[in-house]
Amino acid sequence: MPQLPNSKRKRGFVLLTMAIAAVALFGSAGLAVDLGRMFIAKNETQVFCDAAALMAALRLDGTSAGITAAQAAVTNANNAWNIDSAQITTRQVDFATAAAGPWSTNPSPAAGYTYARVRASVPVQLYFLPLVASLYSQDVGSLAVGAQIAQTSFTRGLGPYTAVSTTPAAPDFGLVVGNQYDIQWPQYNGSRGGCSPSTPDKCFNSPPCSGDPMASKAAITQYWGASVNGYWGSNANSIIEQEVLDVIQLQPVAIGDQITLTSGNKNAQAKALDDRVNEDGDPTDDVLSTYLSNSYHNGRRLMALPVVDPTAAATTVIGYASFFLLSNGSPSDFYAKGTGNDPFCAVYAGPYVLGSESPGGAGQTGAYKVVLVQ
């Protein structure tokens, strides 16, 4: 049998090698394309889960209504995938009282549920992998957990007022949701007839707010003087406005700190508080539950304040709380209409949740920030 010339045999070998290499090359390229699309889908679903978990955790307030609001936030989240061309339709949210679970899709009662887990998946169509395997699509999913985490210090965000409690270990510091408390006390006059720690009401030129207990009034009478009334910010009008409206907070505050109280400027403070009330979507409702139940409030009337215990010569920060500013109509001048003798009253709303339009819920005390924990 005649043999091919050596050069022709080499050309045939090269063609065969190239054909095999081409199959491997295009197979690898196709695999890279499909895996690349799966990687992009993974990133897109992770972005969705991260955002949805934060939104859900923000709405948890210890009630069934908060669970419903968190579920709605995930349902209404509109992050798309496939290069922003398709909606993520397979999604689920569940809740827990701790990062390790157990998880529930609809916990009842809802008190203490501060963790929200969001899972989502999308079907990625495969174009090249089916050539080497019987796989035409692949579900790609992601998961994220958002939670309300206790905050023990603030460098920004607190209002320049305080609430007083002499029972730091009590639930809610002994405060009652819905009751009015002094966030700045009325003018004090220690020389008034009958004024003493045992009869503290006689020490003020105007009555204190209705919710403060006798122990708080007695502590104020014993440890605070005429120039100290619970305000701890700047005395300059322009800075006062920024502290109240823009929460610039000039000094860091941590639990256990001894806070320095100042005299402030009551007229400037009153105007700033009224301005903050009038910036809310609901500047008129004065019942806390009514305010929180409507859909048009924006949280501007909720202010985070340090809770303090005025013991001995020190005023010690024992925690934080959310207070609801009062109104007398629209536009409101509730705080400015008073005299220099009058207190600034606000309603205790519960724990403070940074960035939320509502306070925290049952089983919580203090201040919380919403973060991703997974």
Strand and helix order: HHEEEEEEEEHHEHHEEEEE
CA-based shape: elongated
Distance between the termini: 73 Å
The largest β sheet comes out as: 5 strands, mixed
Q: Which strand-content bin applies to the residues?
A: 15-25%
Whole-number radius of gyration? 31 Å
Strand order in the largest sheet = 3-4-5-14-13
Query: Poorly predicted ranges (pLDDT <50, ≥5 residues)?
Result: none
Q: Round the mean pLDDT to the nearest integer and report it.
A: 89
Number of helices, counting only DSSP H or I runs of 4 residues or more: 6
Roughly what percent helix?
25-40%
Helix/strand/pairing category: alpha+beta
Number of strands: 14
Describe this structure in words.
With 374 residues, the protein is of the alpha+beta class. The chain is built from six helices and 14 strands. The strands form four sheets. Strands 3-4-5-14-13 form a five-stranded mixed β-sheet. Helix 4 runs parallel beside helix 5. The longest helix has 53 residues. The chain is elongated, with a radius of gyration of 31 Å. The mean pLDDT is 89.
